[in-house]
Model the fold of this input.
Amino acid sequence: MRIRFREWMVGPVLVTVAVFWLTAVTVPGQAPAAGRQGASAGRQGGAAGAAGASRTLDGKPNLNGIWQSITTANWDIEAHQAEPGPHPTLLGAWGAQPGGLGIVEGGTIPYKPEALKKKQENYKNRMVVKVTNDPHRFDTGDPELQCYRPGVPRANYMPYPFQIFQTQQQILMVYEYKGAVRTVYMEPHRDAPADSWMGWSNGHWEGNTLVIDVTAFNGLAWFDRAGNFASDTLHVVERYTPKGADHLMYEATIEDPAVFTRPWKMSFPIYRVLEPNAQLIEYRCIEFAEEFMYGGLRHKQLVKHWESDTLIVDIKRKIPPGEKLHEWYRR
Done:
């Protein structure tokens, strides 16, 4: 079997999906940015508002475009120093953790004592994964390591960009990581049909600030690789406030009485991606996690080698006589 690796782009597919979505919900005269139009399209719209930020035809700040934060919070949302990774003898500096000042206002997350112990256990077992149908398979291992959806607010400070498509009734947020998607219902608000990794988002405007109320989490996502977590009673209120044409201030109020002693906040800036050909690049992390999670289930490991840019995998399976599969192959 030959597996050829190519550079796949999300852009063209994303444009098709977004255009279909926008056709159904867009207000006449609004033209959100998408795909290869890049940053310049996201800055188009109505007249410029405060601090040079453009506006849509309904007078709201124009958030269309591709955005990305510059922070090390995905490693740890609290202040942390640079450290070696979990396998320094294999990865060297590649796997090291960069230091950072943190994004938690006040510096410390107000955990309940038993929840703090759980956070410490999460960090200790951050690379322990369980391949089973047992619900306890989510008890250990960073969900990012296993390519699960990142949840909110983590999706906004992972080291991957995301794109906003804005209309008056709905706002679509598409994340490069795993192709995660969330719809923010503006008019009218809607109830969540079920709990999920990304939660359920209803939004409204408070002046120039987009406020999103996020509930209905499944309680499985982590805030970072350090094991910071919440439960399925998590409630997040996000605030996106334009501070200029090309950057936003992001704030999230975190409330979870099962885990924290009080509500707390995180905040950081998010910047518009200004490259003229800016687009999201497909990041199908499932392919990168399969061998890590399931490779040990084989009785015999795969034999593989590279020929230029082609990975050659030798798969030989001998099925014992008498089994149904054996008889089927012999037909």
